[in-house]
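Final report, Chapter 2: Outcomes

The project's central promise was a pipeline that accepts a single protein chain and returns its three-dimensional structure in a standardized token representation, suitable for archiving and comparison. That pipeline is now operational. To close this chapter, we reproduce one record exactly as it appears in the project archive, with the input sequence first and the structure output second.
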Amino acid sequence: MSELLARLARAISHRWKRSLLIAIAAIVGLGAVIGAAGSPPPDDFDVPGAESQRAYDLLNAHTPALAGADATVVFYVEDGTVTEGERREVIESTLEEIRGLDGVAVVTDPFDENEPRVSEDGTIAVSDVRYTIAPEDVERETGEALEEAARTAEEGGVEVAMRGIVVDIASEQEAPVGELIGVAIAIVLLTLLFRSGAAMGATIVGALIGVMLGQMLIAALSRPLGLPEFAGVIAVMLGLGAGIDYALLIIGRFREQMAAGDSLRDAAAKAAATSGSAVVAAGLIVMVAIAGLLVIGIPLIGKLGVGAAIGVAAVVLSAITILPIMIGALGRWLRPKKAAHVKHSAFFERWGEGITRRPWLAIVCGVVVLLVFAIPVLDMRLGLPDDGNQPESKTQRIAYDKLSEAFGPGSNGPFLLVADLPEGEVPQADLDAVVEELRGVDGVASVSPATPSEDGEIATIFLIPETSPQDEATSDLLIELREDVIPTATEGTDLEVFVGGNTASFEDFSDKVAERLPLFIAVVIGLSVLLLIMAFRSLWVPLVSAVFNLLSVGAAYGVVTAVFQDGIGASLIGADSNVPIVSFVPVMLFAILFGLSMDYNVFLLSRVHEAYNEGDTPRDSVVHGVARIGKVVLFAGLIMASVFLAFVTQPDIIGKMMGLGLGLAILIDVLLVRLVIAPAVVTLLGDRAWRVPGWLDRVLPRVSLEGHLVENVDPRGEPLDPEFATPSLRGNGRPSADGAGPEGVPEPEEARK
């Protein structure tokens, strides 16, 4: 791989104008493919095998209106009542306008004498709007039309608030505030690191082109692969962070080689052979970790992982193809003005010496801090944040609060029970008995009569809990209904009753994730460790790295729990306390963090391994490796953390969880694991760190991250410039991966110079 990347970078940087035209043509061609691909398919929210899924399938087959998208429109007044003359007329007129909207199937009348939906004090009236459109097919225009129609009531002195999936989609944030903040911080940090506008610009542009390419690939593949629409959001978040880091590593190594006296083409080739190889290996590990979400068994999560992996693949491709073009175009401006700007860091050399002098102390202190961060995870509660966690100014939060005030908190998340009836009859007596049994259960606020479908195949029952959707008592009630109450009520009858609805669906979603989590973790760790063993021909380093990565993930879980569930600092990011952790957030955090932390592991260990192969002792290789790459790893971590933390500006609570969890976890991983624990562990392992059993060495493919396999010829078969044959490429007498040691052994000090 090193040889291939070196030849590629050398050819592209030498003929950068031709390469630029090819890149532009490829992007234009991809754009044409996207234009012909059509709109993306509906998102697949199925949870195979779940009880709520069976309920949804029955509704979809026999009562489509109850399976479609919905919204709740709340009318309220601060003084008087909504039933007063003109106010009632305004509300009824507004509801009539809503009934005329495209896709609307049912609009309930809050003033219906049989099922009134007006609060006891008369200040609040509620109407449910149901669509023939499936939830996954809702467009922004649908929600905007509903909002425009509903707001007409305000002209008659009635306030309006709305919630539901139709409203959520209409109010989604369009401006990329988080992305812009992250890029702005990255520009500042890159300028401080490189002291060069050209180097900063090349890094940012290379990363942004990778992100753009990823978005184009996702758009082109969304229909054939069935990718969720919001896979692009995760891909942008990951692509920005990883893309800037990858470009930073390669541009930094290129400038280092230029400062050492290499020609532009030789420096580009050496940067690709070393840092480029590390980027490819790191990117593969991230992609494997994220694509591992497929084993969860939920289509939405698996396809989300595939989309994110495509985004990472795009920034890797950009790093090894677009960056050499920019190097060729901006080469003379990329050369560092002062050698001090790229030479090894004296601070990190002293840091490495301190860590390796007392490695056990470094490990113990680092592990203790990680465990302290992870303590809150012991009380983590998975659940469903709802509109009660939205900012108080948003219409969804206002509607949520008004519903709670009028009909209790459980009205915001009713259970929808679906009874599968025997063919040819509607056993009304049995259905009534089930309803009566449900009404006697503690924690149940109200139960509607059973309503058979028009075809007589199913019957539906609405059950409103006394507690809110995110309350733990609601989860306990669901378990009691399914495991005790309903089996008892239907015993001796031909009824099958399934509990569905949004709250039940999310609980089933959580259970499915928890069930497959051990397999998911095993697959991700196993494949990541295997890739590291192939890259470093080491057994202990990958295994130990996986253990400490797990500690980093645990610390991230603890931070998220402490902020959102315990409320520590929650107000600083505009979040409430006592918010349960969304069930798929820990899974996504694990996949992304495990992959990204391996990124920094590869960046650090590749330079340590390089120094070891140059003749350093195990301890010296750690000191010199940290001195060479420590500053880059630190700045790369700060940049990626900034990109992620910028997403806490989103109003959505899930976006805040993901942004905060990823951002702080990257900081924890870089500052503690990569710069404290990992150097200490490699020091203690000594020579064993870079050994692998002979039988395993023979069966694994050979991969080089330090450029040892790069031949001294360019793509045309001509010898490379002498400067390109640097000691770290030629070897130093230590056995190479295939057991052969090249000639020309430099002294360790010469290699470092």
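Archive annotation: Residues 299-334 form the longest helix (36 residues).
This record, like all others produced under the grant, will remain available to the consortium after the project formally closes.
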